[in-house]
């Protein structure tokens, strides 16, 4: 429909206006709360139907709070001065350096060179390479765009038919390693920081880099082991005989010896990860570590001013910031307390027991993904709905962030996962079939819940349940 976005946008604005100014303010909620509620409804309609670029919608939402008197400017835009925003900026800059210098490509190809050149060996290589590389690049789209052409080259070298079982399986191995395994590490994607930033500071402090890794370790093992088994079960060709690794060796030879810029980048990222792990023990903010690393890379000319202008995804950074502002503002205007009273009968049973939560909440998220395409928007909506219940839960609410970040990444249908769309675009849609997407996503949905269930004993041992 030619004017669908315009019509949807008008509907969103009209609906927001009705909520803010025509519906009587319910008991227990202020007019400021109604304004914020109206802006959330309008913004989500805009995000779901892509009426405007996501970051523009987010900025308009924050501006509307100030213009309509819900909160003042410092409260509305406070998130942009927090450490969370700066760790996102610093982390994305580190990832930019790793991609620009070719370090990530070299690591992936090197890992592949050690394993047999057949489906079993190279699917495992792609999954392991992605898992190892994930914490270095906090952005899914560059990883999808970089990894899937490598998978395509391997598929061609193995003479797999486009969109056949072998080709589909290698594509999904790249997605599994480089995208799915992002849930294992706090620094693997900016959305992890975004979801973390939505919750109160006392719960954020639980989710340090090291704690996140330990809390998700059982999930990581299950996701890798069962994921590898699933992809081989679904996609392994009948005659899976090893062939020459010439493709991989040619790529490595074309890259030449490791450059000084690669070595500097590798050293900076390695030190940064070490300090992120030790952050709580040595009282060093993760943002400071990331920003010092960026300064070193800039001083050594690995990164240039042009890189900051052209390679950093500033629209994504701004969008994440506007989404993260919601939690604090909702609490300020009393919207969280009011929502608690409204949603209590529906949500209390889900949060009554951690075992029930790790089964039911992912299923709710899966269903939401059929409507709300954006991973960050889906996670944000879920967090905002659960935020009013944090004080009454029987387990630490920080665990909800782990459940959410592991559950939003599904790709049953083409439109449901933007990084998968990026990966398909990078290979001109020639690798994976629709049935291959659907089957692997369904398998992941089951594996994800199994992995989360196995995390519960670890969460209990760490005193969070």
Automatic annotation (TrEMBL):
Keywords noted in UniProt: Membrane, Transmembrane, Transmembrane helix
Any one GO MF annotation of this record: organic anion transmembrane transporter activity
Gene Ontology BP terms: carboxylic acid transmembrane transport
Membrane disposition: Multi-pass membrane protein
InterPro entries, sorted: SLC13A/DASS
Residues passing through the membrane, by range: 6-23, 35-67, 79-103, 169-189, 209-231, 264-282, 316-340, 346-365, 442-462
Record-linked Pfam families: Na_sulph_symp
Localisation per UniProt entry: Membrane
Entry GO terms, CC: plasma membrane
Family: Belongs to the SLC13A/DASS transporter (TC 2.A.47) family. NADC subfamily.
Protein name as catalogued: Sodium-dependent dicarboxylate transporter SdcS
Organism from which the protein derives: Bombilactobacillus mellifer
């Amino acid at each position: 429909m030619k004017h669908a976005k315009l019509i949807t946008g008008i509907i969103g604005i009209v609906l927001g206006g009705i909520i803010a100014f025509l519906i009587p303010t319910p008991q227990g909620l202020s007019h400021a709360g109604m304004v914020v509620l109206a802006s959330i409804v309008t913004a989500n309609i805009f995000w779901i139907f892509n009426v405007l670029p996501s970051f523009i919608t987010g900025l308009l939402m924050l501006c509307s709070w100030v213009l309509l008197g819900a909160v003042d400017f410092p409260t509305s835009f406070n998130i942009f001065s927090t450490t969370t925003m700066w760790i996102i900026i610093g982390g994305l800059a580190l990832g930019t350096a790793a991609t620009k210098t070719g370090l990530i490509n070299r690591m992936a190809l090197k890992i592949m060179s050690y394993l047999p050149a057949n489906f079993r060996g190279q699917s495992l290589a792609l999954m392991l390479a992605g898992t190892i590389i994930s914490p270095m690049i906090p952005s899914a789209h560059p990883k999808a765009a970089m990894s899937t052409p490598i998978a395509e080259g391997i598929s061609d070298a193995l003479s797999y038919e486009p969109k056949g079982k072998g080709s589909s399986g290698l594509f999904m191995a790249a997605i599994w390693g480089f995208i799915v395994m992002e849930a294992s590490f706090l620094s693997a994607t900016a959305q992890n920081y975004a979801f973390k930033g939505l919750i109160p500071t006392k719960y954020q402090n639980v989710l340090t880099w090291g704690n996140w890794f330990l809390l998700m370790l059982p999930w990581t093992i299950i996701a890798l082991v069962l994921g590898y088994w699933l992809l081989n079960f679904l996609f392994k060709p009948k005659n899976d005989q090893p062939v020459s690794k010439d493709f991989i060796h040619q790529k490595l030879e074309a890259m030449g010896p490791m450059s000084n810029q690669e070595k500097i980048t590798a050293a900076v990222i390695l030190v940064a990860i070490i300090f992120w792990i030790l952050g709580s023990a040595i009282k060093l903010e993760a943002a400071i570590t990331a920003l010092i690393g960026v300064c070193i890379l800039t001083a050594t000319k690995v990164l240039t001013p042009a890189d900051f202008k052209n390679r950093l995804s500033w629209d994504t950074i701004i969008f994440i910031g506007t989404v993260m502002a919601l939690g604090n503002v909702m609490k300020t205007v009393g919207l969280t307390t009011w929502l608690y009273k409204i949603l209590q009968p529906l949500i209390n049973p889900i949060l009554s027991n951690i075992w029930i939560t790790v089964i039911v909440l992912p299923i709710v998220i899966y269903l939401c993904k059929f409507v709300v395409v954006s991973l960050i928007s889906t996670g944000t909506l879920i967090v905002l709905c659960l935020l009013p219940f944090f004080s009454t839960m029987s387990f630490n609410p920080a665990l909800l962030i782990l459940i959410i970040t592991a559950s939003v990444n599904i790709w049953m249908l083409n439109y449901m996962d933007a990084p998968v769309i990026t990966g398909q675009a990078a290979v001109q849609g020639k690798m994976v079939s629709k049935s291959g997407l659907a089957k692997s996503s369904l398998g992941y949905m089951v594996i994800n819940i199994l992995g989360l269930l196995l995390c519960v004993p670890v969460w209990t041992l760490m005193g969070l349940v």
